[in-house]
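Bumping my old thread because nobody answered last time. Still need a sequence for this structure:
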């Protein structure tokens, strides 16, 4: 949903809507980050081997996306002026 709002707002030239869509994206990434956490509270050991590597890669990708959102917001605001 957030991605569609960002794309539509960018095409329409509405930076405030881009910011709203970006906020929705941050919320979605936070939910995904929380869901991708290693087993906590279940008493199980964190995944190892290939599964653990995939988990770390996925969480790194989420982090890169989360860091890129404020950059996109800044570019959207600079484009406006």
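Sorry it took so long. Here it is:
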């Amino acid at each position: 949903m957030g991605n569609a709002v960002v794309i539509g707002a960018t095409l329409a030239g509405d930076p405030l809507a881009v910011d709203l869509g970006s906020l929705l994206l941050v919320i979605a990434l936070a939910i995904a980050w929380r869901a991708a956490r290693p087993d906590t509270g279940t008493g199980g050991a964190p995944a190892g081997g290939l599964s653990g590597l995939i988990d770390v890669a996925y969480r790194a990708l989420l982090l890169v996306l989360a860091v890129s959102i404020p950059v996109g917001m800044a570019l959207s605001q600079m484009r406006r002026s």
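DSSP finds three helices and no strands in the chain. Let me know if any region looks off to you.
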